[in-house]
Amino acid sequence: MNHLTQTIALMEMSITCAAVITLLLQKTFSQEFPLLAKLMLILILANLFFWPLGMGMELPLSAYVRGAVGDLSIVTTLLLWTSLLLASKPAPVAFKLVLTFIAIIFYPLALGFGMLDPYAWGYGSIPFFIAVLLFALVCGLANWNKGVWIIAIAILAWAVHWHESANLWDYLLDPFLAIWALLAIFGTLYRRRKDKARSGYLFRPG
Amino acid sequence: MSRVIALCFLLLAAVIGLLHIDSRPAWAPFAINAVVITEEEVVLEPVPKSKTPSALIKPSIASPISTWLPDTGTPSVHAASLIALKDGGIRAFWFAGSREGAADVSIYSSTFDSKSSSWSAPVVVIDRVNAEKALSRYIAKLGNPVPARMADGRLQLFFVTVSVGGWAGSSISSMISDDEGLTWGVPQRLISSPLINLSTLVKSPAILFTDGRLGLPAYHEWIGRFGEFLRIDAGQVIDKRRMSSGRSAIQPLVFVNDAQDATAYFRQTRSAGQAKQVPVSQTQNAGQSWRVEPDLPIANPNSAVAGLQLNDGSRILVLNNRESGRYRLVLMMTDAKSQWQTIEVLEDDTALPEDQRKEFSYPYLITLDGNDAHLVYTWDRKKIHHRYFSGAWLKRAHVQLSASEVGNTPEEKKQ
After folding, report:
1. Distance between CA atoms of A146 and A144, rounded to whole angstroms?
2. Mean pLDDT over the full length of chain A
3. Residue B18 contacts A where some CB pair is shorter than 8 Å
4. Which pTM value belongs to this model?
5. For residues B350-378, b (16+ Cβ closer than 10 Å) or e, as one string?
6. Which pLDDT score, from 0 to 100, does residue B158 have?
7. What ipTM does this complex have?
8. How near does any CA of chain A get to the CA of B402, in Å?
9. Closest in A58, A115, A136 to B132, CB measured
């Protein structure tokens, strides 16, 4: 079981590394690759990360990345993979705002600020579990079905102990997701400000 | 329609999640008297090598014996720990390498034969490369091995690994042995922190719950420095509770008072200007919640504390009872009626010039029969010193402690 967990974690990390490189390549070339090209690229890169390459390295490349960043949450992993491979609408700004707010409260408390430790709720607190379900429900009511699917899959992954962690938080949130949400909010604000300035220029009376 | 399907899937996940929560074990009381019963009586020949025998102890009682853990041929050793074996022996663990935190550091083990008062040749339990292959992630260094006896009789060894940065970037892993530590199973990672699982370490012995699971006193030392009580089910953390907060206390040592009540003593890590004493936390619900209590009035220079509860009700501590420096190590004792008092000065380089003083640190105590005590500690980072205090010696110290209490005032505020 432990061996299977480790293999799955390395496979996930390999695909994630491949997905990040593919996204960066798309950004570099400022164009969306065809789906087949993306799939092929991810397949090749993921294999490169998953298998031991030798050359003086004791481990596969993905194990080095895993050593540095740990196991990513299911939500981060699925958001990244689906944003690359599925044509679906992006995560709503409200989702990113709530995520950022939660992270800003959660991490200081979880890292020792006071005696309250919200991370401990993730081991089996029913009120916390209901709060997660309500959050997913709101995503559904806001017509972001992908969010519902992702959170539901994260809950299932936790229930079957897919990763090493027995804590639901580790399947829902990680610092990289929080940083992504924060940067995305700043990006949205910047774009809106830019658009407003542009429209103001166009319609300014001459 | 797609929304309905998504919500139905969420409902399915909700049901499975609730079933999962329902299947989780309830919190259990502490197991009392979890001292391992040895199969044969341990008889140790007295070797009068005590450096500074206490004036309280009469000569008729055997003096503590003194041995050294075997040389690993490496210049740096640290963080020794002990576990009682079923045959009456002891198994020690420690890490050794070219220097603390170096890539060549391995975790070593050796067994103590109480009949011959000698240690076996050291063997490597795990090294960095084997650890990273088993855990499928890069590991830069190993540290702090802490053994525990599981309820089913197997041994579990917790140890610290670091992938990036210093000790503050540590995570705990564990492995299990079915043969008293001769061979070990595949290590498993304990996940105990939401931030890349960074900064959970272990130093002190685990305690047993009545349901057979282990309570492991652990601590964080990145951003916050505080104690955490991990509830362990074989190779995974199934719950955890905060024992202190902020940046002032690490390496909790837990004394179980009864099935619900326990006291934790910490190594203080306070900033300049704050009290350099042993911080204390208390639980009255078997570790589910802890509250910070007033300090123990014993000086602590930001160094580890070891302790033991004995069958006669007395408790002993081994620590550096100074506000700075680790060059004096003492054995202290108390019981329900008396204050903590020094009963033996184990090491003391106070009289030496500062540049010649050695470090005596990271003590670790166990008892074989509930009356005696085996102690190991780092000696100048070059060797691990082992001291044995017989039940008779400790009993006599306890009697003398009670007698001397009348008319005495607490002495340990500062030495």
Report:
1. 6
2. 93
3. yes
4. 0.91
5. eeeeeeebebbbbbbbbbbbbbbbbbbbb
6. 98
7. 0.91
8. 38
9. A58
